[in-house]
Amino acid sequence: MKIAIAGSGALGSGFGAMLYRQGYDVTLIDGWEPQATAVKKDGLHIDINGEQHHLNIPMYQDTEIPKDAKYDVIFLFTKAMQLHDMLQHIQSHIHDNTIMVCTMNGLKHERKIANYVDEARIVRGVTTWTAGLESPGHTHLMGAGPVEIGALVEEGQPNVDTVFDILEKAKLNPHKSEDLQQSIWKKICVNGTANALCTILECRLSNLNESDYARKLVYKITQEIVQVATVDGVHLNADEVYNYLIDLNDKVGPHFPSMYQDLINNNRLTEIDYINGAVAKLGAEHHIEAPVNQFVANMVHAKEEQRHAK
Amino acid sequence: MKIAIAGSGALGSGFGAMLYRQGYDVTLIDGWEPQATAVKKDGLHIDINGEQHHLNIPMYQDTEIPKDAKYDVIFLFTKAMQLHDMLQHIQSHIHDNTIMVCTMNGLKHERKIANYVDEARIVRGVTTWTAGLESPGHTHLMGAGPVEIGALVEEGQPNVDTVFDILEKAKLNPHKSEDLQQSIWKKICVNGTANALCTILECRLSNLNESDYARKLVYKITQEIVQVATVDGVHLNADEVYNYLIDLNDKVGPHFPSMYQDLINNNRLTEIDYINGAVAKLGAEHHIEAPVNQFVANMVHAKEEQRHAK
């Protein structure tokens, strides 16, 4: 079974390393030339929960995948705004039974992926594994997961089983989600509050909990997300989700969320359009207003412009 | 005619100085002990549009106004959150015909003032004079106004005429507002966008114009304010107000608005509850939602808490 990791930055190379160490035939693919060059030349140096590993995993830049290469399972791990380009690059390497796995943050990636494979071959999910990239070829993977996965349509269930087995053998701690859409929307609540607010207020997750007013911001964003989630048949209780989020912020207190790291530390564009922006857009499609989520997305974009983020 | 300036910080002492220089019997009053002590000891040092003045204007801290003192005209120039306390301190110094002048930023200060004098004796307005306080006893006044004033009720017109004459003699450039409520709401649009956004994004007014997304934030806040303004019979066109605001930001480009100076430079609490917060609250009283203004108010409060502002 040939596995490709399409998007082998921080989290992608982490998953790739875990799979490779179990003996899977893994190929890393990434659009960022320095990362591809470094791994091709000197392998992947990865710290997995404090343990150092040096792995010679095959790697291609997305523009140089061998013409005849076909993959059976493709894990998508790009930044949300790079997904379209990556799908274009890998489309000729998909065969009739290729399974596409997407546990990326954000809403409705499956709409894009469904242009390339039918819905039954898309395994969608969310994960709480976290990762970072120190320099090209040097990354780390932290946590214990889980990876929650599920099928978009009933016929996709066997493919979920296949991916579950792969992830389980690789100790990536898979769970079969009892309600895939609910798992996705709960993760949107996490990212739509913590990522956006820590980036705007330039603070740690614990700082949100310390402020009565920041907690009101968390609540208001959550309330709108919960309303829009109903269009996917997901019925969350805003108070319950809010309490879950506050509890989560306590647990990961000193951490700066990934969006903060992208924009404030590294001056990179954020995924805000796929989180709060996507909530507002999906809401608008169904006549459910989410003005605060749209405002938050524009606020983060204003900060990107202010900082000339790329 | 005895005139008191109730709230003699930056702008109040500026108005006081202009009146005093025309020979008016002016008394400065302020709640901040260092300011009162400095002016009592060594007079007011004030820079008026680049000219230095040293004026021995009588000054009292608000707790030590002589018991029998009565004032004919009282200009209110406190921070919005200090207005209630100041009114308590000066109430025994108001006589049956005292005129109260309020050109402070923010909505509905007249509701508080009307607990002390009837509406006909309140002269309400807005001003574009700007001022600053370098240290106790040392301030500056900049600009050329105008001060737009008007009556809340028809019977108040003679009092507007009286205040107009005083301001005109003192070269404070008064205008009689053709539509007082409209003037107030236009100023709310200015403060609700420029002050709030420059404080959240920590930027200059010109920076708002440079960003497509910051301009969207300006537009959205304005749109909600215009909707709420209808409860006061004020009908503004959101596009026209938006163009006026963008034009204004261009003109005063390098300037940091007063709220930015309060919170970011001086770690002081802001007047946000009397601007965006007041818009949301007044809207709620009349079943007009203004979620973005409420969110902006909570965001500024979260920043106040983060910075332990006082």
Automatic annotation (TrEMBL), chains A, B:
InterPro entries: 6-PGluconate_DH-like_C_sf (IPR008927), 6PGD_dom2 (IPR013328), ApbA (IPR003710), Ketopantoate_reductase (IPR050838), KPA_reductase (IPR013752), KPR_N (IPR013332), NAD(P)-bd_dom_sf (IPR036291). The keyword Oxidoreductase applies. GO terms for molecular function: 2-dehydropantoate 2-reductase activity; NADP binding; phosphogluconate dehydrogenase (decarboxylating) activity. It comes from Staphylococcus petrasii. Residues 3-152 form the Ketopantoate reductase N-terminal domain. One of its GO terms (biological process) is pantothenate biosynthetic process. It comes from the Bacteria. Belongs to the ketopantoate reductase family. The gene is panE_2. Pfam families: ApbA, ApbA_C. This is 2-dehydropantoate 2-reductase. Catalyzes the NADPH-dependent reduction of ketopantoate into pantoic acid. GO terms for cellular component: cytoplasm. Residues 179-304 form the Ketopantoate reductase C-terminal domain. It catalyses: 6-phospho-D-gluconate + NADP(+) = D-ribulose 5-phosphate + CO2 + NADPH; (R)-pantoate + NADP(+) = 2-dehydropantoate + NADPH + H(+). Transmembrane segments: none annotated.
